[in-house]
Amino acid sequence: MKTAVLNIGEEQTLNPYTELTALKAHNDIVRFLVQVDDNRFASACDDGTIIVWDVQTGEVVFELQGHTQKITAILVFPSNETHSERADLILTASSDRTVIAWDCESGQEVHKASDFLSTVKNLTVLQGLDVWLSGGGELRVWSRHFKVLGETGCFSDGGIAALVELPKNCVAAAVGKDLRIFKLGADAAGSDRWDISEVKCLSAHQDIIRTLANVNELTFVSGSHAGELIVWDALDWSVQAFETNLSRATSPQDVPPENKLIPLQEEISIQCIASDGECVFVAVCRSIYVYNLQTKRVIAYQKNAHDSDIQHMATLPNRQLVSCSEDGSVRIWELRSKPQFQAESVPAGFFSMWGFGKSGKQSNHAVKRAVDTGIVASLELIGDLIGHSSSVQMFLYFQDHGLVTCSADQLIILWKEGKRESRLRSLMLFQKLEQNLQAKFSLQ
């Protein structure tokens, strides 16, 4: 039985994004977006093309053509402070087993690497070392000029699924069920080769790791296909918290005994993770859970945040969160504290902390458990952006220009703050009238 998705209705008084502009230049699924600078972003498509846009005007700045198959990763490699001239690059990886560097200012192809054993699925920049990493069937370290500085052997289990930077020149790579920690460093004085040493293999997950995310300099998190959420210490790689999704999103008392079946993995799989440094926002299929790192508990949740699986999430200022889904929706949420007397008990089976919520607990402990694991906040829907007709792949947030979304419908949509845009138009009109008056008086 399908559960109704939360509906905000037509009145969205707290949603600032009331103006939209649809951009059409791609001819296939637009899968990735990346911010180039304060005024530009790049979109990457399954037809292998990359387009750089002006976020304010919606105009095409460059169209980058060099790949023959779909784009699998994209990021910006900023210039290092030690460089005498700015030379920001856009790095793109493709299913054609190439990685290309594009000049951000001219749009020209600068470098190209094509000797990969398999598709590169991850790109990561280590800004402090002025190098970038490619992750796929193997892990490689590259200089800005596309010279291979070091590499590992080949991985099994589908290669590297996710990659994050850690302190002390380390990176964590998700390979199958394992997290592998690598340390980077120069081989010897005068050598241009780097050593990539695997210093630790973390095997805490019981299923394939789908996503990794940095929380802060001391913490990172991982999520698996089986719904496991693990909080890690970024310095010594120890487990700080382990949460397991053991059942469906309804409490056992609400489900008839004959329907208490083991949930399918696709119903508990962690899709993506976002963090504001204090909380971890976890997308489990179409639901969102807010996990507080200090209390190590779920403090808020929305079981029916979307009608289909969530594709991407990111936090905004003022305790807000944006999520987008396969159902074509983009939703804005606000995390609000609840009065203490309104605290609710967590649905049994959701992110139970090791021993919490076990069936062997006595009934006289029910009140204590409700206090210990109470929901102390709510995730309120404050905006529903309807414009795409197919799965929304991801989005970007610009502080001065609003949101940008991309979709399988081949469209990119710019979502603008209506009040701000109205003020800008009024200002431009007054400026134009003032210029006309000055020109008129100068002729007299």
TrEMBL record:
The record's InterPro entries line, in alphabetical order, gives: WD40/YVTN_repeat-like_dom_sf, WD40_PAC1, WD40_repeat_CS, WD40_repeat_dom_sf, WD40_rpt, WDR41
Which ranges does the UniProt record give for the WD repeats?
23-63, 64-112, 303-343
Spell out the GO cellular component terms annotated for this protein, sorted alphabetically and separated by semicolons: lysosomal membrane
- Gene3D superfamilies xrefs: YVTN repeat-like/Quinoprotein amine dehydrogenase
Q: Which PROSITE patterns match?
A: WD_REPEATS_1, WD_REPEATS_2, WD_REPEATS_REGION
Instruction: Give a yes or no for keyword tRNA-binding in this entry.
Output: no
Name the domain of life: Eukaryota
One GO biological process term is:
regulation of autophagy
Q: Which UniProt keywords apply?
A: Repeat, WD repeat
Cite the PANTHER family for this sequence: WD REPEAT-CONTAINING PROTEIN 41, WDR41-RELATED
Protein name per Swiss-Prot or TrEMBL: WD repeat domain 41
- What species was this sequence derived from? Eleutherodactylus coqui (Puerto Rican coqui)
